[in-house]
C-alpha cells in the first residue's frame, strides 16, 4: 500500500538521514543523504561520502573554503560505519512526487537523525559556498 504524499511529507524532517540512489540521474550506487530543508515543492538533501580525498581534491581545485566540508566521525550517535564527509558545495533537490515514488517503492531507507550541531555546520558550509545558488541559501536565512 502506497502512503499518501501528505503523510510522507509529514515524516520527512530536517536532519533526517536516508539511504537511497539517484537512479533517475544515472547514479545507481546508494549513498547516505541528509535532509536539509523541505518546501512545498521539493526536498533539499546533501550527499554524504567516505571519500575524503575526492572531497578535498574538489575543494582544492576550485579554491573553496575548507569550512564547506563537514566531517562526521563514526560513533554511536549516527548511522555512518566509517568517517563521513559532507561537501556543502553541492545539494540535491528532489521534487516530492519523485521522492514519494522512491519512498513507496522501498528505495528510500530512513537511517537516523543527525546531531543538531553537525546540521548547523552543514548549513554554515552551504552559506559559505560560492557554488550554492542564492535561491537555496535563502531557504536557510
Detailed description of the structure:
The chain has one domain: SH3 type barrels (Roll), CATH 2.30.30. The model has no long low-confidence stretch (mean pLDDT 93). 32% of the residues lie in helices and 31% in strands. Strands 1, 2, 3, 4, 5, 6 and 7 form a seven-stranded antiparallel beta sheet that branches.
Index terms:
SH3 type barrels, seven-stranded antiparallel sheet, 141 residues, 32% helix, alpha+beta, 7 strands
Summarize the topology.
Layout: H1 5-11, E1 16-22, E2 27-38, E3 42-49, H2 52-62, E4 69-72, E5 84-87, E6 92-95, H3 96-104, E7 109-113, H4 116-128, H5 134-138
Antiparallel strand pairs: 1-2, 1-7, 2-3, 3-5, 3-6, 4-5
| Number of separate domains | 1
N-to-C CA distance: 38 Å
Unreliable spans are none
The whole-number mean of residue pLDDT values reads 93
- Major sheet size, sense and barrel closure: 7 strands, antiparallel
Oligomer: single chain
What is the CATH topology descriptor? SH3 type barrels
Work out the radius of gyration: 15 Å
Identify the CATH architecture.
Answer: Roll
Counting DSSP E segments of at least 2 residues, the number of strands comes to 7
Summary of the model, kept short:
By secondary structure, this protein is of the alpha+beta class. 32% of the residues lie in helices and 31% in strands. Strands 1, 2, 3, 4, 5, 6 and 7 form a seven-stranded antiparallel beta sheet that branches.
Amino acid at each position: 500500500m502506497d502512503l499518501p504524499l501528505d503523510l510522507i511529507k509529514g515524516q520527512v524532517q530536517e536532519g533526517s538521514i536516508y539511504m537511497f540512489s539517484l537512479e533517475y540521474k544515472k547514479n545507481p550506487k546508494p549513498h547516505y543523504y541528509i535532509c536539509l530543508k523541505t518546501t512545498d515543492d521539493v526536498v533539499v538533501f546533501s550527499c554524504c561520502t567516505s571519500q575524503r580525498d575526492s572531497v578535498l581534491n574538489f575543494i582544492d581545485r576550485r579554491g573553496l573554503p575548507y569550512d564547506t566540508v563537514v566531517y562526521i566521525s563514526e560513533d554511536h550517535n549516527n548511522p555512518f560505519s566509517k568517517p563521513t564527509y559532507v561537501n556543502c558545495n553541492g545539494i540535491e533537490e528532489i521534487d516530492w512526487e519523485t521522492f514519494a515514488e522512491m519512498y513507496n517503492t522501498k528505495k528510500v531507507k530512513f537511517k537516523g537523525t543527525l546531531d543538531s550541531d553537525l546540521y548547523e555546520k552543514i548549513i554554515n558550509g552551504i552559506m559559505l559556498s560560492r557554488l550554492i545558488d542564492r535561491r537555496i541559501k535563502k531557504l536557510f536565512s
